[in-house]
């Protein structure tokens, strides 16, 4: 075997290594920079108090609660709908024109940028439905936004269930709904959980769609039975929106970096969790 | 004995038969109800797209009618609060296009070569690390890119190019290029992997080197997938808002590489909170223009995918 060493090959190979190096260094650089600048400012009181004019301290507890609220509402609405849609597409639809239309619109939803969701949410939920700037309006807007993520990931999971399971269940006389409930959904569960975790990632990172729907309030949650529900109707800034507020004001950069570090830690956890799930899914 | 057999063979009585039919009917009803529920769930996506489209047109359209299509799309002056208000968004449209173009120009080569590295060249251990890195890049929220841009990229750009202010189109392009990377890497990698082994092996067997095979066989064979990645990347860059608003300077200027610019997306966010009347309607009209951009991209994407499938 004799191969002439071509200088062009060496050059291109160098470029490939360089690009890969740039990609990995950039990722590590961004994450490290945020963590190094942000983590020292995170303290217990920073995470567990509201900002106070009196003491001049800054805390992000309201933002954490708002973020959790929005994650919860969005998932409550979009998970059942997304799973139902995915079941229809894989189990009932076949290759009909209707399925093609649904798949096309799902792709379309996935391609719409968050700022458009923000405008739409403002017009439809905030103004037309009269919800005002509220956590509920934000959650409803995001429910549409994460729908494609849930539908597509669940679809993948359902498709990867061994067809023999399906046939065996139907063959011994189970009805289709019974088969879906007792065979299909349990087998696809890791995939469905992955879909939910991916959606959480999107919701936590979202900002442009929330500024004009959930607004920028920082009211504290009232811990009474009524207060828990009333909180849905108040305007609430999530972590990302709050970060943006602080950063644009330009004076509280330390706080911005601390929030950024919290977000990065969440992103890392989410990535770790999906990796673990994917591995289990492949084995199981 | 005879009697026993008779009992076994005896058909279910009328009442029992009814029972069985009833349970069968019930099961059938449950089946139908659930099928309808699933169809309704699937319809939510379709309905959402229809409502969003309708709302964008109804809320953005009137302003374009009042201002005039030509004045709106090709007007160069954006002075919404002046005594004689003018609503020309040409500069914003151009800034969005240039910004996206720049991001693609930088991001596609780096992304494509990175995907080549992951798919073909990397040792097994590095492959996993790189993939994890790309996934993390995709997961970082826009505001964090914006923050990094504001604190690291903007001062750096100002220093290197000797600018008074580093908030400019170039800084926005740099940030957007990083943000489109994961899309391009992921989709290119998938399509490179889908290139039939025979093609690669035939090329190698003919004596081509690995690098020649990559650039002359594998990348051309994967081009429709790579194009998909590029179109999706364009979509992401055109629509990006929060990261850009923190680095672009946000002055409505005829876009220059090192000048402060306002893009369509940032234009909306910047003035929404205090706008009213025709001004606010005009902001929705910018949203409509952006929406049309995205829809056209979607159609292109569909065409590319169809071509790829053939």
Could you characterize the architecture of this molecule?
In chain A, 76% of the residues lie in helices and 0% in strands. By secondary structure, chain A is an all-alpha fold. Chain A has one domain (58-283): MetI-like fold. In chain A, helix 8 runs antiparallel to helix 12 (253-283) and helix 11 runs antiparallel to helix 12 (253-283). Chain A starts with 6 loop residues before the first helix and ends with a helix. The mean pLDDT of chain A is 88. By secondary structure, chain B is mostly helical. Chain B has helices spanning 2-9, 14-67, 69-74, 90-121, 124-139, 142-160, 169-193, 197-205, 210-221, 223-239, 242-245, 264-272, 277-309; strands spanning 78-79, 86-87. The longest helix of chain B has 54 residues, at 14-67. Chain A: Its main location: membrane. Chain A: It is found in: Cell membrane. Chain A: This is Phosphate transport system permease protein PstA. Chain A: Belongs to the binding-protein-dependent transport system permease family. CysTW subfamily.
Total DSSP helices of chain B: 13
In percent, how helical is the residue content of chain B? over 70%
Oligomer: heterodimer
Indicate the mean pLDDT of chain A.
88
Query: What's the CATH architecture name of the largest domain in chain B?
Result: Orthogonal Bundle
Largest interface in this structure: A-B, 86 and 88 residues
Named CATH architecture of chain A: Orthogonal Bundle
CATH H-level superfamily title of chain A: MetI-like
CATH class of chain A: Mainly Alpha
Shape of chain B: flat
CATH topology tier name of chain A: MetI-like fold
Structural class of chain B: mainly alpha
Please write the string of helix (H) and strand (E) elements of chain A: HHHHHHHHHHHH
